[in-house]
Amino acid sequence: xxxxxxxxxxxxxxxxxxxxxxxxxxxxxxxxxxxxxxxxxxxxxxxxxxxxxxxxxxxxxxxxxxxxxxxxxxxxxxxxxxxxxxxxxxxxxxxxxxxxxx
Length: 102
Hints:
Elements (H helix, E strand, L loop, with lengths): L5 H11 L12 H21 L4 H23 L3 H17 L6
Helix pairs in contact: 2-3, 3-4
């Protein structure tokens, strides 16, 4: 399983000319960055499929979500809605991947 690194992701975002939404409601820069990466995958899956392996895209989307979730809990404390979103994402991964989750 391959995960798209932060460096690769920054290049992809620049190439896609994707305008990341500036979140003024989030003051923590790391949290903001992780959320932006997760949202990039969420909003650009169809465009990315031709450039990257589908499994890599889906695993990367989940990876950056878990980084966001962990940082969110560190900054703001536990949130059941954030936790539930992670479970929904796992279900989505399982449904999208032919061989299930590694």
